[in-house]
Design goal:
It is a single chain. The protein has one domain: Aconitase, domain 4. It is built from 8 helices and 7 strands, in the order βαααβαβαβαβββαα. A 7-stranded mixed β-sheet has the order 4-3-2-1-5-6-7. The protein is globular, with a radius of gyration of 15 Å.
Length: 168
C-alpha cells in the first residue's frame, strides 16, 4: 500500500518496547491478544480507543529496548497503518518491516504534528500532508526492496512469494 490516512496518536522520545508491550505478555503469540495490551500501561487511552487506520507519530529512538518482535506485531494487530518517528531504534525498524508494519522517518512530522491531527501519507511521493494544520512534511523514500516486503505483508510472506515466482 502506498497511501495511508488516519488520526495521530502522538508519543515522545525513547518509547521502548516495554512501553509498547509489557514483558509479561511475551509468552503470548496471538496478535489479537497482543493488540489488546498495546501501550496498556504507557497510554491506556490508546489501548482502549485506537482504531484501524490510526497512525503513530513519535520522537527520537522509537522502539528502543529489547529486540522483541512482539512490539511491532502488537502495533500492527491494533490496526495502526503506519508509524512515523524522528528516528527508530535499529532493531525495531527492521522488525517492523519483517512483520509488515510500515514505518518511516520524518523529524519534521514528529516535531510539528500533534495528537489527534489527521495525516495523509504518500509513500510514492515522499510526502506527508497534515490535513488538520494544512502543512506538508517530506521524508526519504522507503527503498524498493523494503516496499516489496511491506506489500507482501512481511518478510516471510515476501520470501514465499519470491520463491513461488522463481519456480514459475
Amino acid at each position: 500500500m502506498s497511501q495511508y490516512q488516519g488520526r495521530i496518536w502522538k508519543f515522545g522520545d525513547n518509547v521502548d518496547t516495554d512501553a509498547i508491550l509489557p514483558a509479561m505478555y511475551l509468552n503470548r503469540t496471538d496478535p489479537d491478544e497482543l493488540a489488546a495490551r498495546c501501550f496498556e500501561s504507557f497510554n491506556p487511552e490508546f489501548c482502549g480507543q485506537a482504531k484501524n487506520g490510526d497512525l503513530i507519530v513519535a520522537g527520537q529512538n522509537f522502539g528502543c529496548g529489547s529486540s522483541r518482535e512482539h512490539a511491532p506485531i502488537a502495533i500492527k494487530a491494533k490496526g495502526v497503518s503506519i508509524v512515523i518517528a524522528a528516528s527508530f531504534a535499529r532493531i525495531f525498524f527492521r522488525n517492523a518491516f519483517n512483520v509488515g508494519l510500515a514505518v518511516l522517518e520524518s523529524p519534521e512530522a514528529a516535531r510539528c504534528a500533534q495528537n489527534g491531527d489527521v495525516l495523509s501519507v504518500d509513500l510514492d511521493a515522499g510526502q506527508i500532508r497534515n490535513e488538520s494544520r494544512r502543512e506538508s512534511y517530506s521524508f526519504d523514500p522507503i527503498p524498493e526492496n523494503m516496499r516489496c516486503i511491506l506489500e507482501d505483508g512481511g518478510l516471510i510472506p515476501h520470501i514465499v512469494s519470491t520463491m513461488k515466482s522463481k519456480r514459475q
